[in-house]
Structure formats: C-alpha cells, structure tokens
Design goal:
Helices cover about 30% and strands about 40% of the residues. The chain has four helices and eight strands; from the N terminus they run βββββαββαβαα.
Amino acid sequence: MEELYIELKDNQWPLKYIDHDRNIVRAIVIDTDSMFYFVKAERDDDFGRATLIETSGGGVEKGEDVISALKRELIEELGAEVDIICKIGVVSDYYNLIHRHNINNYYLCKVQSFRERHLTKAEKEEFRLSTIKLSYEEALEEYNRRSNTKLGSLIANRELPILLQAKRILDKIK
C-alpha cells in the first residue's frame, strides 16, 4: 500500500511564526488479538486542560535514526518491544501556540512483548501518561470524544487518517 503524506494547518491558534521543526516518530501498535495501544495524557498546560489519547512516540534525538527512535519511544512510553510491519506515512502539522512544525513519521507495529516503561519525570508528573488498550471502533470513538478541546482537535485531525490507513493495511494482510 502506498504511504500517506498529509499536510495539516493549525486552525486552533493564530499563526505568528514558526521557529523550529521537530522530527517525530509515532506508531499504531497492535497485538495478536487486534487490539490497539495508545498513550493517554492528562494535561493542564499552555494548550489548556484536557485528557487526550494519541499514538505512542516522540522526538528523534540528534544522531539517532528513525527506527532506533521508534523502538526507544515505544519501550519508554508503552514498555512494548515490537516488530515493525510497515511505514504508514508522514503527517506534517503545526502547533502555532509553540511555534513548531512537526514532521510525524508513522509506523504500524506489532507487539512482541511488554516490559517496564521508562517514562520521563514530565511524562509521569505533567502529562500523567498511561497506556490505553482499545479495539479499532473504541479508538475511533475515543479520538472523536477527545477532540472537543483545541489540542484534542489537532491530534484527532492528525491521527484519525493514520488509524484508518492502518486498519486498511491490517485488513489487506489478514
């Protein structure tokens, strides 16, 4: 299947300027029972107060390749060791509030095993990250339910097309 490439604008906050790009890796993570794993964040910061779900992932560090970054992030946030099935695509989006352009590289991954998570202090205390396991239908409902905030809307716009493409890929390889 052809990789997606999606460009999105931030329609929630006014654009003043963008001063940096962030290369990000993210994953749609599934298990052998076709259940999906996400991170749930409870935020109260510059973006506002919200409880959100999103795919696990984060920034690619200087000198790190995207595959190493992906595997590191999935262990840190989910405690999941995975096999990468394929790249789903790239979503280019903006967070005008923090003047950032995000280049989100999405992969479809299958869990091989779980171990202890390694969350940062901010992930534990500021975002209160936890793991959430959902069916495909439950994930769609959760994204739609959580899109009632400005940040939730940006995340849903970015991730719902990726989740739909992941489902198409999974249906095709079954």
